[in-house]
Amino acid sequence: MVCSAVDSLRPYTAEYNTSAIGMNLTLNRELKSDGAGGFTLTNGGKILVAGFHEVSVFRVENGEVIPKSYVYQGTGLINRRREVHITPGEETLRSLYKGEWYELPNKPGTLDRLSQQEHLRLLMLNDPNPRDDLVITVADGRKVKDYKIEFVGEEIVETGLGPIKTLHFERLHDDPDRSSDIWVAPDWDYLMVKTVHVEDDKPVEVLLTKASIEGVPVTPDSE
User: Fold this and answer.
1) Domain count of the fold of the chain
2) What per-residue confidence (pLDDT) applies to 175?
3) Is residue 75 part of a domain?
4) What is the pLDDT of residue 131?
5) What is the DSSP letter of 63?
6) What is the superkingdom listed in this entry's lineage (predicted)?
């Protein structure tokens, strides 16, 4: 069921299977609300002696995501940490990348790597034609980047839950050897159903296995 309160987001939990270079990893994602416009989005998983956990804290005001902080922490063999801290109204933001802090321009509407996914959902919830192409600004490492996202088409995605109606979008890259695609479900507040990222001919696929919105499990025949 598509959320009618388009100036906010409904809390959810989701589980995904990730496959890359012959290995599978279960990802767990959860969006929590404090009931006063504040949200915390967590995402992470672990396989053998490696894993990661990331968290984004943001607010939703007037139908827009206003990010506050983002932290990514690798665990085990991949002990990598990233952070982004954004203060509304400040000219710069702080980004931690490979052990060094960077002062980056705080362009209007700048998001972090995780909150940008919720911002996309909110944009589509507010858009009478959610098939529009999109441009979002993301603080990523040492740079602030504009992500150009184009609508590809409507598709049925086969999952462990069954076939799911989705909208397929592609993020455009300057590097022809990289590609990033995302499929979202209009019936479930544009929840992410699938992503495929290819770099150096190595695809990484993320596919939904189960989810609930406000504690209610989603099913392919949700209306």
Assistant:
1) 1
2) 85
3) yes
4) 87
5) T
6) Bacteria
The span from the CA of 167 to the CA of 98, in Å, is: 35
pLDDT at 222: 45
Domain extent at residue 174 = 12-217
What CA–CA distance (Å, rounded) separates 172 from 192?
Answer: 18
Q: Is residue 36 part of a domain?
A: yes
Average pLDDT over residues 180-204: 93
Domain-located, residue 3: no
Q: Angle 191-1-138 (CA atoms, 0-180°, nearest 5)?
A: 25
* Digit-coded pLDDT (tens) for 3-16: 444 578 999 999 99
Cβ contact 122:116 at 8 Å = no
- Using pLDDT thresholds of 50, 70 and 90, give the confidence band for residue 57: very high
The neighbouring-strand residues paired with 57 are 40, 69
From residue 173, how far is each of 176, 177, 205, 212 by CA, in Å? Answer: 7, 9, 18, 32
